[in-house]
Specification:
Blueprint: E1 15-19, E2 26-27, E3 30-31, H1 35-49, E4 53-57, H2 74-84, E5 88-90, H3 97-104, E6 111-113, H4 121-124, H5 128-136, E7 140-143, E8 165-167, H6 169-183, E9 189-193, H7 202-209, E10 214-217, H8 219-228, H9 243-256, E11 259-261, E12 265-269, E13 278-282, E14 291-295, H10 297-308, E15 312-316, H11 329-340, E16 344-347, H12 350-358, E17 367-368, H13 372-379, H14 385-388
Helix pairs in contact: 1-2, 7-9, 8-9, 10-11
């Protein structure tokens, strides 16, 4: 993935359109987590420090092609001004008179933020006219929104047909770290997968069997694989339609000489509740009316021991219902083991990234991916349209 980054192009005196990911959580107009805004600042600062004029565009939520005030980026403009210490001019549209006026009147050192791209259905349909108008605002396009790179949208792919396109620092790091782990990992290489649905990660598991030394499978997915081995899972979450496929993946791993570690015990509950009755049982002895909601202590030890002997670890998906403290110990134990490891440790976005941050281990990881779906497709070996659109080195 040898793609040009913002360092490989002359930006001095140029207008630069930057696709950022400002899809931040909002409570009314209050931004409850500003991580995505601060993550974009290195690219924004670099451009401004090199005398470029910066025009930012992003989506927020899923307004489905129409204006909805609760999805306006206006609160983000205010927060960005506070974080950056620079004047931010908010354009109340994307391709209308407000955007044109804001860009025409840009002063050096100011930032223009366009309104939510997804107020226009042409964004997600990658409409050529919409793309061309966006591209007409700038001399250069910088994509720094890895979380949208798996989507062929106007602001990720379309604009790149009209002006030179390079990556920002966020995408550059994703390509270096994730690409390195997939193409040339330090070994032993362990991939740990959790979360609920096998269906979401079939391609990832299939691809990782070809490149990993060990696959650790926990969370809701673990019960589907245990069921494929013939164990009864009680009322545990199962991906019923993929039990046979799980069995095939287990056979493929055996043929390839890849270890697949599955939970040997589970924290089970008599109902899906923080206050349910709980007990620890062996994986093959989950009672008929109980459900597994976390990996048990013996499994934590088994998985932790493998993490300690690994030199590259990728993790996507929690080990249990970590949002409830009663079932968070498995996820916490994995996060702690990775944080204490000397290995290259990569968190593949999504719920596992949220868990690591919530539990205070984020700072000890080598890399936390900014794109859940995009990182999964990358690990699956797919070409991401938003990355393919960038200029080659």
């Amino acid at each position: 993935m040898n793609k040009k980054s913002v360092r490989d192009i002359n930006v001095k005196g140029k207008k630069v359109l930057v696709r950022v990911d400002f899809n931040v959580p909002l409570n009314g107009r209050e931004i409850t987590d500003e991580t995505r805004i601060t993550a974009a600042m290195p690219t924004i600062d670099y451009l401004l420090d090199n005398n470029a004029k910066v025009i930012l565009c992003s989506h927020l939520g899923r307004p489905k092609g129409e204006f909805k005030p609760e999805f306006s980026l206006a609160p983000v403009a205010e927060k960005l001004e506070e974080i950056s210490g620079r004047k931010v001019v908010f354009a109340a549209d994307v391709i209308g008179p407000s955007a044109k006026a804001a860009i025409d009147n840009m002063k050096q050192g100011e930032i223009v933020l366009l309104e939510n791209l997804r107020f226009h259905k042409e964004e997600t349909s990658n409409d050529a006219g919409f793309s061309k108008t966006l591209a007409s605002y700038a001399d250069i396009f910088v994509n720094d929104a890895f979380g949208t790179c798996h989507r062929a949208h106007a602001s990720t792919v379309g604009v790149a047909a009209y002006i030179p396109a390079v990556s920002g620092f966020l995408i550059n790091k994703e390509l270096e770290v994730l690409g390195g782990a997939v193409d040339n990992p330090a070994r032993p290489f362990t991939a740990m997968l959790g979360g609920a649905k096998v269906a979401d990660k079939i391609g990832v598991i299939d691809n990782l069997i070809n490149i990993a030394d060990t696959l650790i499978i926990g969370g809701g997915m673990g019960y589907t694989f245990l069921k494929a081995k013939g164990f009864e899972m009680g009322k545990s979450l199962l991906d019923e339609g993929n039990i046979d496929l799980a069995a095939e993946l287990l056979k493929k791993a055996e043929r390839k000489g890849v270890d697949i570690l599955l939970p040997v015990d589970a924290v089970v509950a008599d109902e899906f509740s923080q206050n349910a009755k709980t007990m620890v049982v062996a994986s093959e002895h989950i009672p008929a009316d109980w459900m597994g909601l976390d990996i048990g202590p013996a499994t934590r030890m088994l998985f932790t021991d493998r993490i300690r002997t690994s030199r590259t670890i990728i993790w996507n998906g929690p080990m249990g219902v970590f949002e409830m403290p009663a079932y968070a110990e498995g996820t916490k134990a994995m996060a702690k083991a990775m944080a204490e490891s000397d290995a290259v440790t990569i968190i593949g976005g999504g719920d596992s990234a949220a868990a690591v941050k919530q539990m205070g281990f984020a700072g000890a990881m080598t890399h936390i991916s900014t794109g859940g779906g995009a990182s999964l497709e990358f690990l699956e070996g797919k070409t991401l349209p938003g990355v393919a659109a960038l200029e080659d080195l």
